[in-house]
Amino acid sequence: MASDRSRADPQKSLVGFAVGEVAYAVPISHVREIVNPLPLTALPHSPAAVAGVADHRGEVVPVIDLRARFGLEPRPDPRRCKWVLVEVEGRVVGLAVDQVTDVFGTGGAPLKPAPALGPGDSDRGIVGVTSREGVLTMVLDVTRFDQLAATARASSPPRSGRPGPAP
């Protein structure tokens, strides 16, 4: 006889991952794929949370380091992380996470409101919280990461063509 705990949630609307000791998730509808880290190119004048850009199958993808975004120390071995590639408004942004945990749903329950923590609440980008097996999981607003990546794109110096000697 199967227990309630082992019964799959048919909704499976969230992709879960860990950053530090905290569980997070993003809506599966925004997740394009999960990949191993690729070589990064740093962007000058970009926010600290923007690790750089990577060439993923011919597409230049900005990568947000969630450890940096959430004020955590860098991971000891960044090659052991995963990237969750999310699509927002036709653009792809990579989220560097410590590990991807699972795909799950809320069991039909609505998300609980994000906790009010004072100044900076809107910057945190938490749209709600769900609890499963006694663990709180923060559900993130993926549009916040596209906005951060857009800031990085805007702060990059414009390209003026091929470098060469001045006339």
Quick summary:
With 167 residues, this protein is mainly β.
Q: How are the secondary structure elements laid out?
A:
Layout (H helix, E strand, L loop, with lengths): L13 E6 L2 E6 L3 E5 L14 E7 L2 E7 H4 L12 E7 L2 E7 L1 E6 L16 H4 L1 E7 L2 E6 L2 H13 L12
Parallel strand pairs: 2-10, 5-7
Antiparallel strand pairs: 1-2, 1-8, 3-6, 4-5, 6-7, 9-10
What features would you highlight for this structure?
mainly beta, five-stranded mixed sheet, 3 helices, 10 strands, globular, disordered N terminus, disordered C terminus
Could you explain the architecture of this structure?
With 167 residues, the protein is mostly beta strands. The chain has one domain (18-153): OB fold (Dihydrolipoamide Acetyltransferase, E2P), CATH 2.40.50.180. Helix content is 13%, strand content 38%. The chain is built from 3 helices and 10 strands; from the N terminus they run βββββαβββαββα. It has helices spanning 66-69, 121-124, 143-155; strands at 14-19, 22-27, 31-35, 50-56, 59-65, 82-88, 91-97, 99-104, 126-132, 135-140. The strands form 2 sheets. It has a 5-stranded mixed beta sheet with strand order 8-1-2-10-9. Strand 9 (126-132) and strand 10 (135-140) form a beta hairpin. The longest helix has 13 residues, at 143-155. It is globular. The termini are far apart.
